[in-house]
Amino acid sequence: MATFISNAQIILSEDFESSTSLPETWINDDIAGAGDTWVIGSGVDAPYYGADNGYFETYTDISVNYAWFDSANNGVDNGVAEELALTSPVFDCTGLSSVVLSFSHWFLGDQVSAGTTIDGEGFVEVSNDGGASWTSVLSFVGQTYGENIIDISEQVGTSSNSHVRFRWTGNYNYLWAIDNIIVQQPEGSAPDVCTNMTPANEATDVEIVLSNNDLKMIYFSWDAATTGDPATSYNWYFGTTADDVSNLVSGFDGTAEDSGITWGDTADTGWQTNTTYYWKVASINTAGITESSVYSFTTGSTNPLGIEDIS
């Protein structure tokens, strides 16, 4: 899904659909000199998960072709660090009042080797001087996925010699897949706040159910705002205190039917009975981000695994 509105001015757009190899206008910068390369992958299955998982299409808008670095197969578990960047062609910001970068990605940077977790890191960086210097605007560790929208107006200004790059550092980790890269001057306004959030604020006895993967799940939903410019995506956040609502699920669309969120890696972790949680929703388009108020809810006493909580 391309993230722009119809009257936006598109400065750079790349979905990697036109070739099975890296486009000539994009640069594979092997900073460490280890022979590592970004390549073009294809399909909707996230590598290193089960067959036919469809995760790219379900969670990220990555589909068909995409650029990716496969650290697990390019890297060597010998302590030699990887560092390489996927660098865009030049783009011209002359005369623009605002510049926004958006892209979809799947970042998986953790790898356990000999009992030790080795963290890969990803950096999104921009340059306003033809690549002579770079400024980081976003970074990633662990696992994260979905759409990102970043205002880079301050970093690129009105430079006619701008670039964006995606820089990976690590060694023998997993992967970084990137698609639907767009730089644009958006027009219009940020979306208004979403409405009819469910569970309602201070709701009690909220049901925990089992997902298809036998993980504990809670249903969340909301309505898109009927005023202002529409949201193109949403970020969902939760926490265990009102002051720290920072756990993120990006690209979760609560306007769809049967929108459930699991939490935890095993059946007995995740959502707990008789527990109060806090959550909020960020409505996003290229013109800006609007967050809802923080809502709270308390789960019921029934555990879907069949173990009653009698505390």
| Global structural class | mainly beta
**Considering DSSP H and I runs of 4 or more, what fraction of the residues is helical?**
under 10%
Along the chain, the helix and strand elements come as EEEHEHEEEEEEEHEEEEEEEEEEEEE
The average pLDDT score comes to 88
Strand residue percentage: 35-45%
How many β-strand stretches?
A: 24
Overview of the molecule:
By secondary structure, the protein is mainly beta. It is built from three helices and 24 strands. A hairpin with a 7-residue loop joins strand 19 and strand 20. The longest helix has 5 residues. It starts with 8 loop residues before the first strand and ends in a 12-residue tail after the last strand.
Keywords:
mainly beta, single chain, globular, 3 helices, 311 residues
Helix and strand topology:
Elements: E1 9-14, E2 27-29, E3 39-42, H1 55-59, E4 65-70, H2 71-74, E5 82-87, E6 100-108, E7 110-113, E8 116-119, E9 121-127, E10 135-140, E11 143-151, H3 153-156, E12 163-170, E13 175-185, E14 195-198, E15 203-206, E16 209-210, E17 216-219, E18 221-223, E19 233-239, E20 247-250, E21 260-262, E22 276-285, E23 288-291, E24 295-299
Parallel strand pairs: 15-24
Antiparallel strand pairs: 1-13, 2-5, 3-4, 4-13, 5-12, 6-11, 6-13, 7-8, 9-10, 9-12, 14-18, 16-17, 17-21, 19-20, 19-22, 22-23, 22-24
Question: Can you summarize this structure?
Answer:
The protein is mainly beta and 311 residues long.
